[in-house]
Each structure stands twice: as C-alpha cells, then as structure tokens.
Amino acid sequence: MVLTQTPPLSLEAFLQQPETKPPQEYIEGQIYPKPMPKGQHSRIQTRLATAINAHSEPEKIAMAFTELRCTFGGRSLIPDISIFNWQNIPLNPKGQIADLFLIPPTWTIEILSPEQPPIRVMNNILFCLDHGSELGWLIDPQEQAVATFQPGKQPEIYQGDRPLPTLANLPQLHFSPTTIFNYLNL
Fold first, then answer.
1. Which CATH number do you get for residue 73?
2. Distance between CA atoms of 137 and 111, rounded to whole angstroms?
3. pLDDT tens across 140-157, in order?
C-alpha cells in the first residue's frame, strides 16, 4: 500500500473530490488508498455484517454497514464494518438513512488484508475509540485471531472458541474467532 504523495489537503477539499476505486481514507492531511477486498476478506465482511444485522435490526438496537465512509474528528475513514446504535443512525429530512455519516461508529470492525499496514489499521480503530466508539475489532485471517479494543482497556487477542466482546446493548450476539473463521469454509 503506497501513500499518495500530495501536498497536505484539507478535509473539506478531500470530501469535494469524487470517490475513487479503491476508496481512499483521509488521515492527517494525507490520502491513503484502502486495499480492495479479496475472497477471505469479502466473505468474512459479508457474513459478519449479515449476522450482526440479523440480531440487531429486528429490535431496532443497531445496524451494521459495510465500507461506509465515516467523517469525524478531522479524518474520513472507511471501516470494513461500521455498527451504529439505532438512535445514532443519521437520517435525512425524509426520515431515511442519510448519505453522510459525520460521527464515529459505535463499533468499528477491520479485517486485515495481507498488504495492509496493521499499525495504520490499529491507529484508525484507536482514533474511533478516542472519538466515542465503544468497541473495535481487528480480524486477522492469516493468524486466525481477533484483537479487540475498548476504551480504557488494554487490547486483547482472541483465538479459538473464546467469546468475543460485543456491544452491551446486544447481549444475545455471540461470536468467537472460530465462528468468524468458519465463514471461510464451504
């Protein structure tokens, strides 16, 4: 992953540019391309978001979005999965889901791609926590492990059948690394 070398750009100027493929994130005046998801990444992302929504949407507790641009705190990030508590989902004047999300997700999930710098991804998760997110996961398919991040706590590494933390308002939601990595089996 190569940093696009440009003079520092304002967040407002970045947001005025057309979206690109692959999408780009804005971090401290610099633009970083997000890697295009490959097979394992895409499968985990799709299944995990679907599972979260199956448990959280019917009761109007939360909603998971994939590849959603979230702009807050001077950055514009695109977590692989962004989960928002229901009452925090931005709405447009028609009462529909808005296009612009100018708040951090309640829960941010990143799925590490082999060419992605893990420190930058962890930095984005920590940035979300510093701006109000309650939970962050970093899923590493190569290591078959999930690192979790919560405000005021040390990161923890989960493997196997150890239950992963989820949002406090989703007690019926149960995942373990085994559950997540079993999504890769046909």
1. 3.90.1570.10
2. 8
3. 999 999 999 999 999 999
